[in-house]
Amino acid sequence: MDPLFQKLFSQMPLVIIWFSAIAIIFDQNVSAVSLPNHETIPAVFAFGDSIVDPGNNNYISTLVKCNFPPYGRDFAEGNHPTGRFSNGLVPSDIIAGKFGVKKLLPAYLDPSLHLQDLLTGVSFASGGAGYDPLTSGLMSVIPLSDQLNMFKEYIKKIKDEVGESRTAIIITKSIYIVCIGSDDIANTYLQTPIRRLQYDIPSYTDLMAAQASNFLQELYGIGARRIGVFGITAIGCMPSQRTIEGGKLRECSRNANLAAVLFNSKLTSEMGALNRKFPESRLVYLDVYNPLLALLQNPFAYGFKVTNKGCCGTGSIEVGILCNSYSVNTCENSSDYLFWDSYHPTDKAYHALSSLVLDDKIKDFF
User: Fold this and answer.
1) Catalytic pick among 74, 93, 341, 347
2) Average pLDDT over all residues of the chain
3) Among the options 86, 253, 344, 347, which is catalytic?
């Protein structure tokens, strides 16, 4: 094993124990947190993949969709699929609520949006996207480069409506969330041969980190200053990865988790360098790897009973179009489950993770 892998992996149990000592009851209603200096955030913007895609994929030609039951089963009044890869909300919604902006962060491509929807923020994310351009290409979804182009288009739209001065305030004072990278490792690298023929895991995570740095510099160049970047979670423990790579016992995929840890270490290094290069920036690393391990290690403390399979269907492999109204054995009580489908957490888990990941980091954006 690579020495860096050994060093990083050896530290994990200590982190698990630390988080597992905490028992928290999470309220499903998102309450805005107290911001430093009583600041008001004008808008929240999200870039990335299915974790923060509220339905952009509904409006493009791709198989990576979820705008059908049982997705959205617990959204609003219930049984309302929106294109969110969840039974309810996704983290971009929850984060917008925490910053006191609004309860739902809509998809930029939604044709029903009004001016006020735009002014308070949107998500440009696309389920299936990755830092590696090949990832988005394989899934026929919106790559990060096009998400940036949509943001530039957005700026022109609101500038035409509210003027340059107000637009500048919105762009510089808002919160930006970047959540992407899991599909690069879980799908593009581990499940297709193309990148494995070109890279080993260390060099592939180098490619991802370089792409992440380039994206963040471009986003800063457009005007963004307060940028929260999610690391990759313990993707080897997702039900689908347990099924594909976990053997007969469906254990967590060690290779996937080690790749996530290695990438996260490189991402934090790149972000530190960019914070030094751009003194006006507030680039905040958001660790979701260890919080997910906390939920897996001590689920009962957080109100979960099932952690190794999703609620939808058998819970072992169903995701996207495989998780549909014909999926047999879909669970009755999703709040017992950490995962909704074989790849995405439940609404309840997203609330728990968002609090663990973000609450202590909010001050770092100011």
Assistant:
1) 341
2) 91
3) 344
Q: Give Cβ neighbours of residue 283 (< 8 Å, ≥ 6 apart).
A: 216, 227, 229, 271, 274, 275
Q: Is 341 a catalytic residue?
A: yes
Query: 211 pairs with which residues across the strands?
Result: none
Residue 27 annotated to the active site: no
- Domain spans of the chain? 3-19+40-301+350-365
Residue 344 known to be catalytic = yes
Mean pLDDT of 260-269: 98
Token pair of 156 as six digits: 């022109």
Cβ contact 319:342 at 8 Å: yes
Q: H helices within 124-235, ranges in order?
A: 133-139, 144-162, 164-173, 182-183, 193-198, 201-222
Residue 235: closest CA among 314, 289, 196: 289
The CATH code for residues 3-19+40-301+350-365 is 3.40.50.1110
Q: Catalytic residue, from 50, 92, 182, 253: name it.
A: 50
Has this prediction a pTM greater than 0.85? yes
